[in-house]
Amino acid sequence: MEFFERLVDRFYEGVQTDDVLAPLYPEAPDFSGARHRLTLFLAQYWGGPTTYDDERGAPKLRMRHFPFPVGPLQRDRWLQHMTNAVGASGASDEIRATLLGYFIPAAEHLRNDTGLPITSADYPR
Ligand code: HEM
Predict the structure, then answer these.
(1) Which of 25, 40, 65 to mutate to test ligand 1, by most ligand atoms within 8 A of the CB atom?
(2) Which residues have C-beta within 8 Å of that of residue 4, sequence separation ≥ 6?
(3) Domains and CATH numbers, the chain
(4) With b meaning 16 or more CB within 10 Å and e meaning fewer, what string describes 57-76?
(5) If you take atom 17 of ligand 1, which residue's CA is the nearest one?
(6) 109 in helix, strand or coil?
(7) Ligand 1 within 6 A of CB of 96
(8) 98 CA distance to ligand 1 middle (Å)
(9) How close is the Cα of 2 to the center of ligand 1, in Å?
(10) Residue with the nearest Cα to atom 24 of ligand 1?
(11) How many CB atoms sit inside 10 A of residue 123's CB?
(12) How far apart are CA 27 and CA 16, in angstroms?
């Protein structure tokens, strides 16, 4: 838990000052709730206590990200801050590689916008 608290604190130091990501957070400029939820989720995902599920229910992260436009830019900014946080975590090479091997596809999985200036919503039917 301490490891994920430090990782997520460091991650949010970057997010808070990010002009693309920070405005997406409904409780900004207060990131304490978002920090808490991500910390608990990661601790649970990696085999720790299931407090996230107790507080929030099943993660359903794709669904929970639908309200926020997550395109390639947002995904890459998110990954940049997480890569920095993992790099500063003091974890071994193997653990850092394992964490990034999870975060990279996870961020792409949560992308819900192509980032292209087209949309199927206007497509003639
Ligand atoms: C790809 C770029 C991403 C963006 C732009 C993004 C953005 C956001 C935003 C705006 C929120 C709402 C903040 C809040 O809870 O108050 C949120 C919540 C959350 N995000 Fe992300 N996120 C991204 C990727 C990820 C990834 C890769 C993970 C997990 C590995 C993740 C895990 C979570 C969790 C656990 C929550 C809280 C869900 C809840 O219980 O309500 N996010 N995210």
Answers:
(1) 65
(2) 39, 42, 43, 46, 48
(3) 2-115 (1.10.490.10)
(4) eeeeeeeebeeeebeeebbe
(5) 65
(6) helix
(7) no
(8) 20
(9) 20
(10) 107
(11) 7
(12) 11
Q: Which two tokens stand for residue 1?
A: 């838990």
> What is the residue-level pLDDT of the chain in tens, covering all 125 positions?
999 999 999 999 999 999 999 999 999 999 999 999 999 999 999 999 999 999 999 999 999 999 999 999 999 999 999 999 999 999 999 999 999 999 999 999 999 998 887 665 555 54
Q: How far is CA 93 from the centre of its chain?
A: 21
The token pair at 32 is 């304490």
Tokens of 79: 């990954």
User: One-letter amino acid identity for 38?
Assistant: L
The C-alpha atoms of residue 5 and residue 92 are separated, in whole angstroms, by: 17
